[in-house]
Amino acid sequence: MARKSLTTALGNLRVTAFLFLSLHAVIGSGHDYHDALRKSILFFEGQRSGKLPPDQRVKWRRDSALHDGSTVGRDLTGGYYDAGDNIKFGFPMAFTTTLLSWSIIDFGRNMGPELKNAVKAVRWATDYLLKVTAIPDVVYVQVGDAYSDHNCWERPEDMDTLRSVYKIDGSHPGSDVAGEKPQPAAALAAASIVFRSRDPAYSRLLLNRAVMVFDFADRHRGAYSSSLRSAVCPFYCDVNGYQDELLWGAVWLHKASRRRRYREYVVKNEVILHAGDTINEFGWDNKHAGINVLISKEVLMGRAEYFESFKQNADDFICSILPGISHPQLQYSPGGLIFKAGGSNMQHVTSLSFLLLAFSSYLSHANKVVPCGETTASPALLKQLAKRQVDYILGDNPLGMSYMVGYGPRYPLRIHHRGSSLPSVQAHPARIRCKEGSRYFLSPNPNPNVHVGAVVGGPNITDAFPDSRPFFQESEPTTYINAPLVGLLAYFSAHP
C-alpha cells in the first residue's frame, strides 16, 4: 500500500511539474478572463452572413450574401462564415452551434452580462439551421462554391463568386451532416435546451426539427462527402465516418427530450466508440471523446448505470491527455500547448480543454477522480490543465503573444481573413473584385480591420508562429475554435 501511494504521488508530481516547467512566459500577471470572454463572443458577429441586425457591434462588416438560396427557390440567408473565407459550410457550423450551446448549458451561469450575447450567437446559427432543414428529408449543407471562393480574395460584401447550393436527400445521404453538422440534430437539440426557459415555443420548434432531421439521417445512412465529394472535399471531408455523428445526435436528443428511444439507441450503438485511435479526438469530424464525456455526467450522477462503458471511455480519454502519459497521437509543445497533427491546431486545444473542464465539473459534483496508472486525475488537476491551455492562448507562452486578436498588448496582426484584411466598405466604398484583393493578401501590412476575439490556428509544435496571411493553418481563425473557448472563459472569469 505504501509503495502504491508513493508511485501515485510521483505520477502526480510529474504532471504538476510539467504544468509549471512549461510556463516559459511571464507568470503571475493574471488574465482578464471576462474581457477575453466578451471578445470571444464578439468574434461571431464578425462572421455573420446575411442581413445584419440593428444592434450589430462589429461595424466594419455590412450585409452580405443576401440572395443565398435563390437558385433553388429558398431563403438560405444568414448563418456564419466558418473561417476566413466566404463559404457557409454546414459541418463546422453545426459543431460550432452545439459547442456554443453546451458552453451556455454548463457555464452560462458564469457569463454575467455576456450571457445574452452568447444566446444571440446561438440563435443566429439556429435561425439559419431551421431554414436549411425546413423541407422534410432535405438538408441544405453548403452555400457557396469553395473552389471559386478560394480563387478570390474579396470581402463578403463584394462576393461575385458562385453561391452554389448543395443538399442531401434520400438519394444523396448525409448522416454526418444531418446527424450533427450543418443543420443538425445535435445542434438543434442542444440549442433547444438553451431556449427552454427563455423562449419555450422556439425551443419546441428546435427540438421537433432535431427529431425530424435525426430520423431522416438514420433512415438514409451515409457520409455526405461521399455524395458531395467534389464540393466539400478536401475542405470539410468526413474522414471519420458518419456513425459517431448519428450517436452524437442521439445523445443530445436524449439529453433534450429524455425519451427512452434515444437512450436505447445510444446503448445499442455504443460499440462504435471503442476505436483506440480516436480516443482523444473531438471536433467537427470526430465526436468520440465528446460523446463519452457528455454521457458520463449521467453515470456520475448515479442514474444511468447502463452508460457505464461510456464513463470508462471518458476515463481513458482523460488519461490520454495527461502530460507524461499522453496518447501517441497527442503531444505537448515545449511551451505546454496541446498539439495534434494537421491544420488549425487551436481547434484541438479549445475543444479538448473544454472536455477537460466539463468532465472536471462532473467529477467534482460526484466527488470522484480518474485513476490513470501511477497518476490520479483529480477534478482540480483537470481544471489546472484546461486553464494552462487557456492561459497559453491569452499570452502565457514562449512568444508572449496572445493568439486572440485584440486581447493583450501583442496579438496576430495579419490574420488569414478576407473581411479583416481588406479595407471596409465604409473606408473603401468601391467594389474590390476577385483578383483585386490579392495585393491586400500579399501585403506585409497589418489588417486594417481588427477582428476582435478571433483566435487563430496558432503556433506549431515548436511554439513558433508566422504572423502571415499565406500561412493559413496558423493564421486563420474559425468559429469552431472559439465556440468551446466561450465556455472555458466563462468558467475562469468566475473562478480565476
From TrEMBL:
Superkingdom classification of source: Eukaryota
Cleaved signal peptide residues: 1-28
Keyword Transferase: no
Keyword Hydrolase appears in the UniProt entry: yes
One Pfam assignment: Glyco_hydro_9
Gene Ontology molecular-function annotations: cellulase activity
EC number of this enzyme: 3.2.1.4
Broad enzyme group: hydrolase
Residues at the catalytic site: 416, 467, 476
Catalytic activity of the protein: Endohydrolysis of (1->4)-beta-D-glucosidic linkages in cellulose, lichenin and cereal beta-D-glucans
Limits of the Glycoside hydrolase family domain: 33-489
Keyword set, alphabetical order: Carbohydrate metabolism, Cellulose degradation, Glycosidase, Hydrolase, Polysaccharide degradation, Signal
GO biological process: cellulose catabolic process
Transmembrane segments: none
Entry's family note: Belongs to the glycosyl hydrolase 9 (cellulase E) family.
Protein name per its UniProtKB record: Endoglucanase
The species this protein was found in: Populus euphratica
Gene for this chain: LOC105125211
